[in-house]
């Protein structure tokens, strides 16, 4: 019984060390990737993509002029403005998603970002947009 416990413990330690070595090696290989320079730049703190709101387009979506939109936005969330204008949440959500994807596509075409970045960005896009829709300034 004592030998079995000793062998099990030895096997566990060996597997533990091997798995940590494999993880370290894969991280080392990942950091040496050539074609994904945008990810490397992002890891070094350089901003590779920034979504900037097109307030003219957004005001048109809400059927307002830019000044009216900004006045309302200072006091209300986008959901509240949409309700005032007879626009439902799904329409607002779809509009915001479309705007994000347009900006992502443009940055991808300019080779500012890669597909891996787009996949990472879109993982939390739904939650980010829902927050953006409900936040008040």
Q: Count the DSSP helices.
A: 8
Q: How would you describe the oligomerization state of the chains in this entry?
A: single chain
Largest sheet: none
CA radius of gyration is 24 Å
User: Termini, distance in Å?
Assistant: 67 Å
Query: Helix/strand/pairing class, anyone?
Result: mainly alpha
For the record, the count of structural domains works out to 2
Give the low-pLDDT segments.
Answer: 4-12, 14-40
Shape: elongated
Mean pLDDT: 76
Helix content: over 70%
SSE string: HHHHHHHH
| Range of strand content | under 5%
Number of strands: 0
Give structural notes.
This protein is mostly helical. The protein has two domains: 2-32; 55-134, no CATH class. The chain is 72% helix and 0% strand. The protein has eight helices and no strands. Helix 6 (89-109) packs across helix 8 (125-134). It is elongated. It starts with a helix and ends with a helix. Residues 4-12 and 14-40 have low confidence and may be disordered. Residues 1-24 form the signal peptide.
Name the descriptors.
137 residues; mainly alpha; 8 helices
Secondary structure blueprint with pairings:
Layout: H1 2-31, H2 37-43, H3 55-61, H4 66-73, H5 78-84, H6 89-109, H7 115-123, H8 125-134
Helix pairs in contact: 6-8
Keywords: Signal
Signal peptide: 1-24
Describe what is shown at a glance.
The protein is an all-alpha fold and 137 residues long.
């Amino acid at each position: 019984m004592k030998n079995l416990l000793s062998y099990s413990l030895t096997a566990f330690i060996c597997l533990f060390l091997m798995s940590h070595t494999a993880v370290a090696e894969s991280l080392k290989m990942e950091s040496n990737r050539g074609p994904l320079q945008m990810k490397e730049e992002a890891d070094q703190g350089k901003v590779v993509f920034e979504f900037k709101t097109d307030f003219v387009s957004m005001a048109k979506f809400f059927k307002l002029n830019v000044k009216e939109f900004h006045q309302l936005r200072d006091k209300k969330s986008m959901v509240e403005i949409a309700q005032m204008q007879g626009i439902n949440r799904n329409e607002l959500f779809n509009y915001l998603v479309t705007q994000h994807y347009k900006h992502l596509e443009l940055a991808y075409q300019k080779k500012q970002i890669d597909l891996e970045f787009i996949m990472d960005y879109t993982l939390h896009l739904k939650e980010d947009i829902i927050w953006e829709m409900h936040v008040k300034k």
